[in-house]
């Protein structure tokens, strides 16, 4: 999943050559890496990354950052506030470095696992080293919270997972790196997952089997009351715990779907009636429960959700079915799955594919939005034609300028939207803010709702307003609202803003990718004049009409005398 944007610059006070090699050669082949010259970390941070499109890893030892902490390790009584002030100074240097980088990852500080320091007193406040280090890590995270492109990674998990051999004094003496290869592998895996999250490559849906995945036993043979699920049975408890872990993913905006070889009414009855079910019908965005080929059913579910294979995880207890789906659907993630249900939750938690740099209102509401979509589809089936259905939806679009309140969601759309995306620019929140701040630039956000519910913030328009020609730099729309005349409403608003700034022509130039053909097809049929295969123009002496089925409220509109 590596792209030319995956460039990592390492700043550290120990030897990180092994980490850089692990990332570029094994964890993420092809990634470009560079390491800051040896010397003080503060100086390297002040020098900045090689270029603004590089991400950074800043990894230090606590005793190198805080002289106060180093004295505490020598059993001196110290002023903890002084250590926190040193942390703030260090964090400020990291934030300045991050202002010139795409994103920055900062591992937390850890102690060698063999160090007992004050022994039984080590967690005594104002005495031991352990609470001081814990509070320094919290102070670091607090000091960096306002830097939107800085992410603090939990290095203690890497050390705990690697065990007693994760730290090696011998390696420190020999190579000036205290971390064993097992810790480096875990660090590289988390950094790669974070890069995927920043670039919008996180997985967005988990498709699951039912029998021996969500419950124990075959529901078609034993009925819902005979399933192993919950209760005082250790196997049933494991299945219920796995469902709780899946339910927690939905809070993060990850969709769940079902593909199962079963009789649909029988399976849905179990989901609806079994008292120990944690996941209910409304927790699933889509399902295919029948006796057809699973690979075909997975493809059908993805079509329903308008998502690609690269957004998907498929979980099945059958090695045959996993192999079939893996071979038939390139790009889908099909993890090997343990035979023991007691390891299901652990296996799910070990998947480093759900990282996201933001948690938005749309993420938290995504499963409910899919339930609303089923209601819309039912209404479509009852409508006489598509136009009647679109009018019946009562679609309303609210336009706002880019602002701190909608910045995270806007940046998320920039990094996740592929199909309806004019230029497919990938911008972090900081980069988007900087671009929008230019006097000639205008970024508009579009929130959509209809009579069934709120789609959330689903569209972005970025305009570059020249003296005579306005350029549509960004035009992107979530696949959830494509084909409902929201695209035309967005063009209507873009043209109105361009006219308000006295432009005579609106120009849209599509940058073709492997996945934005739907965007090209829209502009071909949009009514704009095709100046070339990928360039489209609109004469702003005429307004671009808003579709009758869409009501627009434009809070960002600049009203001038030339507006009709």
Topology:
Blueprint: E1 7-12, H1 17-27, E2 32-35, H2 41-47, E3 55-59, H3 62-65, H4 67-73, H5 80-98, E4 104-107, H6 129-143, E5 150-153, H7 155-162, H8 169-175, H9 181-198, E6 205-208, H10 219-222, H11 234-251, E7 255-261, H12 264-273, E8 286-290, H13 294-305, E9 312-315, H14 319-328, H15 344-349, H16 361-364, H17 366-382, H18 386-393, E10 395-401, H19 404-416, E11 420-421, H20 429-436, E12 441-450, E13 453-465, E14 469-477, H21 486-500, E15 505-509, H22 517-525, E16 529-530, E17 535-539, E18 550-554
Parallel strand pairs: 1-2, 1-3, 3-4, 4-5, 6-7, 6-9, 7-8, 10-18, 14-15
Antiparallel strand pairs: 10-12, 11-14, 12-13, 13-14, 15-17, 16-17
Provide an overview of this structure.
The protein is an alpha/beta fold and 564 residues long. It has helices at 17-27, 41-47, 62-65, 67-73, 80-98, 129-143, 155-162, 169-175, 181-198, 219-222, 234-251, 264-273, 294-305, 319-328, 344-349, 361-364, 366-382, 386-393, 404-416, 429-436, 486-500, 517-525; strands at residues 7-12, 32-35, 55-59, 104-107, 150-153, 205-208, 255-261, 286-290, 312-315, 395-401, 420-421, 441-450, 453-465, 469-477, 505-509, 529-530, 535-539, 550-554. Helix 21 (486-500) links the parallel strand 14 (469-477) and strand 15. Helix 7 (155-162) runs antiparallel to helix 9. The chain starts with 6 loop residues before the first strand and ends in a 10-residue tail after the last strand. The model is unreliable at 558-564 (pLDDT under 50).
């Amino acid at each position: 999943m590596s792209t030319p944007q995956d460039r990592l610059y390492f700043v550290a006070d120990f030897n990180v050559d092994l980490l850089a090699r692990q990332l570029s050669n094994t964890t993420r082949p092809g990634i470009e890496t560079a390491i800051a010259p040896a010397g003080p970390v503060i100086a390297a941070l002040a020098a900045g990354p090689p270029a603004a499109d590089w991400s950074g890893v800043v990894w230090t030892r606590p005793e190198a950052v805080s002289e106060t902490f180093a004295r505490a390790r020598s059993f001196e009584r110290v002023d903890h506030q002084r250590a926190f002030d040193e942390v703030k100074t260090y964090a400020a240097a990291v934030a300045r470095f991050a202002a010139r980088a795409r994103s920055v990852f900062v591992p937390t500080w850890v102690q060698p696992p063999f160090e007992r320091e004050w022994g039984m007193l080590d967690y005594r406040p104002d005495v031991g080293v352990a609470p001081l280090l814990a509070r320094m890590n919290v102070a670091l995270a607090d000091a960096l919270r306002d830097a939107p492109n800085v992410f603090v990674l939990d290095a203690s998990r890497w050390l705990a997972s690697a065990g007693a051999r994760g730290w090696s004094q011998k390696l420190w003496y020999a190579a000036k790196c205290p971390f064993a290869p097992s810790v480096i592998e875990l660090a590289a895996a988390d950094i790669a997952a974070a890069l995927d999250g920043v670039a919008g490559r996180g997985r967005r849906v988990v498709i699951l089997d039912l029998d021996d995945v969500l419950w124990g036993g075959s529901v078609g043979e034993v009925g819902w009351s005979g399933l192993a699920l919950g209760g005082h049975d250790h196997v049933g408890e494991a299945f219920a715990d796995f469902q709780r872990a899946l339910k927690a993913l939905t809070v993060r905006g990850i969709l769940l779907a079902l593909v199962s070889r079963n009789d649909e009414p029988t399976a849905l009855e179990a989901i609806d009636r079994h008292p120990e079910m944690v996941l209910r019908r409304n927790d699933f965005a889509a399902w295919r429960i029948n006796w057809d080929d699973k690979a075909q059913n997975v493809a059908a579910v993805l079509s329903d959700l308008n998502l690609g294979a690269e957004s998907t995880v498929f979980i099945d207890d059958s090695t045959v079915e996993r192999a079939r789906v893996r071979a038939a659907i390139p790009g889908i993630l099909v993890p090997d799955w343990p035979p023991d249900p007691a390891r299901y939750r652990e296996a799910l938690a070990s998947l480093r594919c759900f990282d996201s740099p933001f948690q938005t209102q749309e993420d938290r509401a995504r499963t409910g939005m899919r339930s609303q979509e089923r209601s819309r589809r039912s209404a479509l089936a009852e409508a006489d034609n598509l136009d009647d259905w679109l009018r019946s939806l009562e679609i309303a679009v609210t336009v706002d300028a880019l602002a701190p309140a909608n910045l995270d969601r806007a940046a998320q759309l920039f990094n996740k939207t592929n199909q309806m995306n004019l230029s497919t620019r990938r911008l972090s929140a900081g980069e988007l803010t900087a671009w929008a701040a230019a006097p000639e630039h205008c970024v508009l956000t579009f929130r959509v709702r209809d009579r069934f519910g709120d789609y959330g913030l689903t569209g972005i328009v970025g305009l570059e307003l020249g003296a005579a020609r306005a350029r549509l730099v960004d035009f992107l729309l979530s696949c959830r609202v494509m084909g409902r005349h929201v695209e035309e409403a967005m063009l209507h608003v873009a043209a109105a803003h361009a006219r308000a700034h006295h432009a005579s022509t609106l120009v849209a130039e599509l940058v073709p990718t492997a996945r934005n053909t739907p965007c090209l097809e829209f502009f071909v049929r949009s009514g704009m004049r095709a100046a070339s295969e990928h360039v489209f123009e609109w004469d702003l002496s005429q307004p671009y009409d808003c579709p009758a089925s869409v009501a627009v409220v434009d809070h960002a509109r600049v009203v001038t005398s030339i507006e009709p």
